[in-house]
């Protein structure tokens, strides 16, 4: 975490229970953590286009919700890192729980009939979200949130491994790429927390470009945003494959992955 040597900016004193390693208000008085803020764009813009494409393709609403949930996480994280206010912190952290619950629902409903609704699973995930929300608002302990979020991510990892091991082995590339990118982001998140003092001292002496490159919490946003986006693609690919939609991964502008598919042939 960040040492208490940061300047005060437009948004006033920090009220969040977390203050990350990036130097506060270093680039502008209007953004507390500049790089940690703008790095959220990867979680905001691509999922919006994914949701629009899902609507056009008339996909099940849960996948539209998955894309939009990732966008909400990005917007909440943007507000949190821009202001370092407690209310904005909640706007970041609680949607992380809610979006993961949507991801879990999508993953466990991949092999059901089209447009079916699993009310038992839906009720369980909504109840889990409500309990986590109430406890977190009461205890205000970031570790509690991190453990709950970790449980959901671990559930998604196990489900993904099951699918690429026993159901669709040819999806290992997409599934493991998503997982590897996410775990790399988690590694850099820990490096940023553990070695914050050393990183700050290095940035005081290093050229600006190297200083930006060592903003590892911003890299956490970029990598976990990309990993989460790829996870939605993996879930969507699995689902449309089961529905015989013949999905394919295409790359927009030769670099950004999207799912394209054709409806099943009518006999």
UniProtKB/TrEMBL annotation:
Swiss-Prot/TrEMBL cofactor(s): Zn(2+)
Binding site for Ca(2+): 19-20, 22, 24, 33
Pathway linked to the protein: Sphingolipid metabolism; Lipid metabolism; sphingolipid metabolism
Domain of life the protein comes from: Eukaryota
GO cellular component terms, A-Z: endoplasmic reticulum membrane; Golgi membrane
Pfam family, one: Ceramidase
Topological type in the membrane: Multi-pass membrane protein
The keyword Protein transport appears for this protein: no
Places the protein is found: Membrane
Predominant localisation class: membrane
Keywords tagged on the record: Calcium, Hydrolase, Lipid metabolism, Membrane, Metal-binding, Sphingolipid metabolism, Transmembrane, Transmembrane helix, Zinc
Positions that bind Zn(2+): 81, 217, 221
GO MF: calcium ion binding; N-acylsphingosine amidohydrolase activity; zinc ion binding
Transmembrane residue ranges: 34-52, 64-84, 96-112, 119-137, 143-162, 174-191, 218-238
Reaction catalysis annotation: N-(9Z-octadecenoyl)-sphing-4-enine + H2O = sphing-4-enine + (9Z)-octadecenoate; an N-acylsphing-4-enine + H2O = sphing-4-enine + a fatty acid; an N-acylsphinganine + H2O = sphinganine + a fatty acid
Catalytic class of the enzyme: hydrolase
Keyword Lipoprotein set for record: no
Alphabetical GO biological process terms: ceramide catabolic process; inflammatory response; myelination; phytosphingosine biosynthetic process; positive regulation of cell population proliferation; regulation of programmed cell death; sphingosine biosynthetic process
Enzyme Commission number: 3.5.1.-
Family of this protein: Belongs to the alkaline ceramidase family.
Function: Hydrolyzes the sphingolipid ceramide into sphingosine and free fatty acid.
Protein name: Alkaline ceramidase
Species this chain originates from: Cricetulus griseus
Top-level taxonomy: Eukaryota, Metazoa, Chordata, Craniata, Vertebrata
């Amino acid at each position: 975490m960040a040492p208490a040597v940061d300047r005060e900016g437009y948004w006033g004193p920090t009220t969040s229970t977390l203050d990350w390693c990036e130097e506060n208000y270093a680039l502008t008085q209007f953004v507390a953590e500049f790089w940690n803020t703008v790095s959220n764009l990867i979680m905001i813009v691509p999922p919006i286009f994914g949701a629009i494409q899902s609507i056009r393709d008339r996909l099940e609403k849960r996948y539209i919700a998955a894309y939009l949930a990732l966008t909400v996480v990005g917007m909440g994280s943007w507000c949190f890192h821009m202001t370092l206010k407690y209310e904005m912190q909640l706007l970041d952290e609680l949607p992380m729980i809610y979006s993961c619950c949507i991801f879990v629902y999508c993953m466990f409903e991949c092999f059901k009939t089209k447009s079916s609704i699993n009310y038992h699973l839906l009720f369980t995930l909504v109840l889990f979200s409500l309990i986590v929300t109430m406890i977190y608002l009461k205890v205000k302990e970031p570790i509690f949130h991190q453990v709950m979020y970790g449980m959901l991510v671990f559930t998604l990892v196990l489900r993904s491994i099951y699918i690429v091991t026993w159901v669709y082995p040819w999806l290992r590339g997409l599934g493991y790429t998503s997982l590897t990118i996410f775990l790399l982001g988690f590694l850099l998140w820990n490096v940023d927390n553990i070695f914050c003092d050393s990183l700050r001292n290095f940035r005081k002496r290093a050229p600006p470009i190297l200083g930006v490159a060592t903003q590892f919490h911003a890299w956490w946003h970029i990598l976990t945003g990309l990993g989460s986006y790829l996870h939605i693609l993996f879930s969507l690919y699995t689902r449309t494959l089961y529905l015989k939609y013949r999905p394919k991964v295409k790359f927009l502008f030769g670099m950004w992955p999207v799912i394209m598919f054709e409806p099943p042939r009518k006999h």
